[in-house]
Design a protein that fits this description.
Blueprint (H helix, E strand, L loop, with lengths): L2 H14 L5 H10 L12 E5 L9 H11 L3 E5 L12 H12 L4 E6 L9 H21 L3 E4 L10 H20 L4 E5 L7 H10 L5 E4 L12 H8 L6 E4 L9 H10 L5 E4 L8 H18 L1
Parallel strand pairs: 1-2, 1-8, 2-3, 3-4, 4-5, 5-6, 7-8
Helix pairs in contact: 1-2, 3-10, 5-6, 6-7, 7-8
């Protein structure tokens, strides 16, 4: 949003506070800008705690990210940082303050919740658990929660599963909007092919539900990376997961050109697939590769 749009949004929210129309005002404001839009000039570099940060407690994680220049972090669930829905209100305030005192930004939290389950009770449990992660992100100062689609159960029509996932995301989007949060659908599992993700997003009408690109080999299938990227580019969320930016197995130079052309200003978060001996050095290396990719895009 530009400054005039932002003032209008804030004035509207103030006038509607305490009324049932507040959610609609938030959703309308979110719809006015791309899901991945940000006030900064370019993409930003950070870390998903999976693998490289999984065994770092929160003070260590913040210190190591600062050293490496990874200035944003997604806290994946069940890691040593301990930021999970079970923590108390006091602990949530402590986590929020730690990030406030650090130059490293809490981008959000990463859950493993998925919405493909044929069993209604299992599906409902996962939706409610995802809401707990959204509330956690809000309480600790994050801006969103990552979820998964995730699979395509046998003996269930694919379109039925796609619609079920999309409707689940809509419910989460409504809940998240009232907390100022984004729901980030990771491109993952049997739903990883981008045409499937695009079909899910056609069901989603909540503007604060975005796609978390995941750097999968499935991105290259069918008509190729550029075609698949365009299927979801207008629904990209504020986070993107990347793996081994200079490994040669994935065409990151092409992806970064596509991201730049799409004016993507979100977070590119490294998600390690192994544990190098010196993870800080490895993270610094990935940051430098990231910077070169941005410059050459």
């Amino acid at each position: 949003m530009n400054s005039m749009d932002r003032r209008y949004f804030l004035n509207t929210v103030a006038s509607l506070a305490g009324t049932g129309l507040l959610h609609n005002a938030i959703s309308s404001a979110l719809a006015a800008a791309p899901a991945g839009a940000d006030s900064s000039a370019q993409m930003k570099f950070g870390l998903v705690t999976y693998m490289w940060g999984a065994d770092w407690d929160l003070p260590t994680l913040l210190a190591n990210c600062e050293k490496a220049g990874a200035m944003g972090v997604e806290l994946r669930t069940e890691h040593k940082h301990g930021v999970d829905p079970e923590i108390s209100a006091d602990k949530r305030r402590e986590v929020k303050q730690r990030f406030a005192d650090s130059p490293v930004k809490l981008v959000g939290v990463g859950s493993n919740q998925a919405f493909h389950y044929p069993d209604p009770a299992q599906l409902r449990a996962s939706i409610e658990r995802a809401k707990a992660f959204i509330k956690l992100s809000h309480d600790v100062g994050g801006s969103g929660a990552k979820v998964k689609p995730n699979d395509l159960p046998k003996n269930v029509p694919q379109q039925k599963t796609i619609e079920q996932i999309g409707k689940s995301l809509n419910e989460l989007g409504v809940y998240a909007a009232d907390l100022g949060q984004q729901v980030r659908l990771e491109v993952h599992g049997q739903c990883a092919p981008l045409p499937i993700i695009a079909a899910i997003m056609q069901v989603v009408d909540q503007p604060n539900v975005g796609v978390c690109w995941n750097g999968n080999q499935q991105d290259l299938e069918g008509e190729g990376l550029e075609h698949n990227f365009h299927l979801v580019e207008k629904r990209l969320g504020a986070t993107l997961h990347a793996h081994d930016l200079d490994g040669g197995k994935y065409p990151y130079p092409q992806l970064f050109k596509l991201l730049k052309a799409a004016h993507y200003h979100g977070w590119v978060l490294v998600e390690g697939s192994d544990k190098p001996a010196d993870r800080i050095a490895a993270l610094i290396h990935q940051r430098k590769v990231f910077e070169k990719l941005v410059q050459s895009a």
